[in-house]
């Protein structure tokens, strides 16, 4: 686990709500996850708090708060666009922005056997088709989360998840949808998919970075290595 710059607790979350969103402060709170960048705390039945635990996570949170309200109406699945935002609290010693998002029921893909993920391939592909649209002049998945690293860049960095998430059949379905629908039906060239393999290899090395605290990511990495080598990457 990446060391936290600040210990984020349920008590701190409650105090932040009481200070900034008192109408939500009486809801039950349940710690769900301590991620690399953020702590996730469920808020009642339908909401969740995302609170940065380190400075880098705070910058990613600012990115999400800026872009997700613009992206959410254009995407075919739920994303964690904020329904409320929080600000740093000098009184409570919490120095970063934070947010309240809608709770998305579901399970992490990494906890599901690869062969059972195949039916999701077309849905995830269509999500990326929608995401990778050129900017306009003015500007059945449950959800896709963690948009802190969002930027204008190479779509291959997103498509690399194909090897981390799916088996050969799932990748076939995923690519078929992307090739048929991306860029108004023009799809992507071979170079895009080769770069996507390179991104997948990079992500795989990250998966092995914290085996003691994130063993499930090690399994994701092992799956990706197997899939990449099966294609001679």
UniProtKB/TrEMBL annotation:
**Matching InterPro entries, A to Z?**
AGP_Transferase (IPR051678), Aminoglycoside_PTrfase (IPR002575), Kinase-like_dom_sf (IPR011009)
Q: Which domain of life is it from?
A: Bacteria
Q: Name one Pfam family in it.
A: APH
Q: Residue limits of the Aminoglycoside phosphotransferase domain?
A: 30-133, 137-189
Sequence intervals crossing the membrane: none
The protein in question is named: Aminoglycoside phosphotransferase domain-containing protein
